[in-house]
Amino acid sequence: MPAPTIQELTSPSTWALIEDKFSPFAKETLEKLIHFVHNECVPAEKIYRAQIPTDPAKRWTTVIPIMVELKEKAKKLGLWNLFLSKAHYPDVGVPLTNLEYAVMAEIMGRTGHLASEATNCAAPDTGNMEVFARYGTPEQKKKWLVPLMAGEIRSAFSMTEKGVASSDATNIRTSIRKEGDEIVINGHKWWISGAGDCRTRVHLVMGRSDPSAPKYLQQSIVIVPSDAPGVKVIRPMKVFGFDDAPEGHCEVIYDNVRVPASNIIAGWGKGFEVIQGRLGPGRIHHCMRSIGLAQRALDMMLERVTDPNRVTFGKQLYEHGTIVADIATSRAEIESSRLLVLSAAHQIDRFKAKGALKEIGIAKFVVPLMAGRVFDRAIQSFGAEGISQDTPLAAWWAGVRTLRFADGPDEVHIQQIGQRELKRVPRLKELTAETKEKEEALWKRTGTVKSHL
Ligand SMILES: Cc1cc2nc3c(=O)[nH]c(=O)nc-3n(C[C@H](O)[C@H](O)[C@H](O)COP(=O)(O)OP(=O)(O)OC[C@H]3O[C@@H](n4cnc5c(N)ncnc54)[C@H](O)[C@@H]3O)c2cc1C
């Protein structure tokens, strides 16, 4: 049977809207990607989970064989580093726009993180590769960007701290100081994705390097090899009970870690500048993938509620009105979120991430909430099985719930969007005053008596 078409996987109307914005290369890549995800990744999902050892001694030290195989296949097919747009990174990027990548990320997202990792498009490596590509010195690129882009190593971005409200990064307390030719790092981080992965060779650590500097120039980012003496991975944190092995989101202590002074990224005091650059397009990569996963959950729900064995109170499940309404609502929410994300991606292509802050911010809090609701409805339609280990729905729900914190909590984005909206008030008032003047003139000219209204 042929693989599904892009229209089937997304929607015919959305594809009609964007098709002419796709280059021949992007169309060819998209087709290859659909085949790869459908024929290689989806059938490998259960095997991937089964190959993660349950033995605690091996759980964090095993490279999952099916992932190695998938990566080799993806690389051979040219489905590799698709997130790195040539428009932003001319020397290392792939000739795809953010809009083109958004559709591809949705297709990858249908398998959770599996296809993203297989194509070397998985967080946190994507953001870290962007940091090295944008701010790295030639030596830093050679040592870290080249193996990351080849998929030979993985990486972590280390900012959030235990006991510190880290959604405001000016609170970060980890100390970064220069001592002779070295940088000394001391701090206590947690939720560091990828820090538990035996393939991770490098952490980008954000800390405070000059408490006397202006507020947004106090922080710096340092390259820390994961095997540097003093890097202590304490434990993987659990997300609603899931430890997300083999990557993990770990508690990490940096205890008098020493690295060469040349390991600073972009210069002293540039921490804020770098994190803002890092989370430009990357902020919506999660959104793109979440839409694919939400679509997949809806597909699963459709199959479940039409299973002839599922009859309650004399009707098949899909014959109950509330279930049909749940299906329709999920469909409507997925469609509208997709358009939102595509418009954000298109805006990034036109004006870079800085010119798309509004669209990125809205997508950042709207899409994970939407996907959470879709998973919740799908779970409900599966009955108790939906929250069990026998379907992936519970893990997907837990994963998407974390996106309401990761890369900054919803409220921070909501606040920024609200403030941005309020800036429109003076112009709105001008327009209203102008309308009022025209209205008054109309009253006068027509001689209509106001009291009649
Ligand atoms: C699965 C997962 C993976 C993660 N991966 C990484 C990683 O790789 N690297 C890393 O450094 N961090 C990572 N994080 C951490 C994540 O980025 C932080 O949890 C997030 O930035 C929030 O910081 P905090 O937990 O310290 O919450 P706090 O800063 O303590 O905030 C608590 C709550 O306060 C509220 N709040 C905050 N600001 C406002 C505001 N302006 N208005 C209203 N309410 C507000 C929000 O509800 C927020 O959830 C990860 C988290 C999870 C769950």
Automatic annotation (TrEMBL):
Give the record's GO biological process terms: fatty acid beta-oxidation using acyl-CoA dehydrogenase
| Assembly and binders | Homodimer.
Q: Which UniProt keywords are given for this protein, alphabetically ordered?
A: FAD, Flavoprotein, Oxidoreductase
Q: Which residues form the Acyl-CoA oxidase/dehydrogenase middle domain?
A: 156-257
Recorded hits in InterPro entries, A to Z, give: Acyl-CoA_dehydrogenase, Acyl-CoA_Oxase/DH_mid-dom, Acyl-CoA_Oxase/DH_mid-dom_sf, AcylCo_DH-like_C, AcylCo_DH/oxidase_C, AcylCoA_DH/ox_N, AcylCoA_DH/ox_N_sf, AcylCoA_DH/oxidase_NM_dom_sf
The organism named in the record is Botryobasidium botryosum (strain FD-172 SS1)
Instruction: Report the GO terms under cellular component.
Output: cytoplasm
Name recorded for this polypeptide: Acyl-CoA dehydrogenase NM domain-like protein
Q: Which GO terms describe its molecular function?
A: acyl-CoA dehydrogenase activity; flavin adenine dinucleotide binding
Entry similarity comment: Belongs to the acyl-CoA dehydrogenase family.
Q: Which residues form the Acyl-CoA dehydrogenase/oxidase N-terminal domain?
A: 64-152
Q: Does the keyword Transit peptide apply?
A: no
Q: Which residues form the Acyl-CoA dehydrogenase/oxidase C-terminal domain?
A: 269-420
Q: Which cofactor does it need?
A: FAD
